[in-house]
Design goal:
This protein is of the alpha+beta class. The protein is built from five helices and 22 strands. The chain has three domains: 108 residues; 82 residues, no CATH class; 167 residues, Jelly Rolls (Sandwich). It is 19% helix and 33% strand. Strands 7, 9, 10, 12, 15 and 18 form a six-stranded antiparallel β-sheet that branches. A hairpin with a 2-residue loop joins strand 13 and strand 14. The longest helix has 21 residues. The termini are far apart. 34% of the residues are buried.
């Protein structure tokens, strides 16, 4: 669909409906954004439906994903496989139910600390190369050692995500720029089938503080001189590193190769942070559950909160230039104009009868649009927990 109604035309058409008094409105761009926002709050607009690839893929055993930045409220329509292999069915549930009573097919939106995470409990075949549970210094074969400014490496059986423990370390007082773990003699495995496709290395890291951490780096290869490396600057769900447990994802694509790696004989793994030299003398850093997973390509369809497009086709939440395009087709455009008339008359006219008629005219159009275009977003389902007496 090509959108054709510009911000300029939108304001002109509203102006005709409010007796040419739009000049009395102090900020016409703010007014246009308010009108669009209020209509979007009243009803799901058909033209606001968007489809994009789930970032990056859907993985077995992985629950956290990046939510679309323009997702309106909880208005998810579906999460279909790009190539349908069965009757995948997802149900939207509250976050507390997703966490405490997990069921395959559940999805949820977790909002916290100004962040938004999409939670998906998908049923996928587990194509996996397990590397190490990281619950002991010899987990996975060989011996785990420190990297850079890490110190006091030890197993922790009290604080972990999976298995029976995690590997805990502190930051020393030394002026180092890295800190983490490595294993130069891990049980040998083959990564041939995981390279260049939909596969990623996952590992959990617990941070005492995310301050002054630049990135995390994975090295995986034949030995400490022949390895692939990958650098990441955010968590798997797309949000910034934070204090507490973080799930890291290293995609096995566009890898940097040092030396020559024998893909069938992987014997060396290292994962560590790049940090500021002044980040020293801190405790309670941990790694847990290191594995390779192969994902499947899924899409997500949803209603977007972005009501505008630039002339170059970029979606925008707010309009700031007269050439911006309203995300609406003809029937929807008339609905926006009617809403603009109602709000505009409230700001420029003292005749309550005229304002009241404009409001009723909009309400009637809104009802008709809703009948013609039912909301397709999922209804959140909350079920009571079973109780035993």
């Amino acid at each position: 669909m090509t959108f054709i109604y510009t911000q300029s035309q939108f304001l002109n058409d509203i102006n005709r409906k409010i007796f040419g008094k739009i000049g009395m409105i102090s900020s016409q761009e703010d007014f246009a954004n308010e009108v669009v926002r209020e209509v979007r709050n009243d009803i799901s607009i058909r033209s606001a439906r968007r489809k994009m690839a789930l970032s990056p893929h859907l993985f077995p055993s992985i629950l956290q994903y990046a939510a679309p930045s323009d997702l309106a409220d909880y208005k998810i329509i579906d999460i279909p496989a790009q190539v349908k292999k069965g009757d995948d069915s997802f149900s939207l549930v509250p976050v507390e139910q997703f966490d405490n009573r997990p069921n395959l097919g559940d999805i949820a939106i977790d909002d916290y600390n100004g962040q938004r995470v999409l939670l998906i409990n998908g049923e996928l075949p587990a194509t996996q190369q397990f590397i190490s549970e990281l619950d002991s210094l010899t987990s996975g074969g060989g011996t785990w050692e420190i990297v850079g400014g890490a110190t006091n490496l030890a197993a922790d059986g009290d604080d972990y995500i999976k298995g029976a423990g995690s590997l805990s370390f502190d930051l020393s007082a030394a002026s180092e720029t890295t800190a983490g773990i490595k294993n130069t003699d891990i049980n040998e495995f083959d990564i041939t089938d995981f390279l260049g496709g939909n596969s990623s290395v996952f590992v959990w890291v617990k941070l005492n503080s995310a301050t002054d951490i630049t990135n995390f780096i994975l090295k995986i290869g034949t030995d400490a001189s022949n390895y692939y490396s990958k650098t990441i600057t955010a968590k798997h769900d797309g949000n910034a590193f934070e204090a507490g447990w973080n799930l890291l994802r290293f995609d096995l694509t566009s890898l940097t190769e040092t030396g020559t790696v024998t893909n069938t004989s992987i014997n060396f793994v290292s994962v560590y942070m790049t940090k500021d030299v002044g980040k020293v003398s801190e405790t309670d850093y941990k790694f847990d559950w290191l594995t390779i997973l192969k994902g499947e390509i899924y899409n997500i369809t949803y209603y977007s909160k972005y009501g505008w497009q630039s002339s170059a086709g970029v979606y925008k939440q707010l309009t700031d230039t007269s050439s911006d395009l309203l995300v609406a087709d003809e029937s929807e455009y008339d609905l926006f104009v009617k809403k603009g008339r109602y709000i505009g008359l409230q700001e420029t006219n003292n005749d309550d009868n005229i304002i009241d008629r404009a409001g009723k005219d909009y309400d009637l159009a809104l009802k008709q649009y809703g009948l013609n275009n039912p909301d397709e977003s999922q209804i959140m389902i909350s079920t009571y927990a079973d109780q035993q007496i």
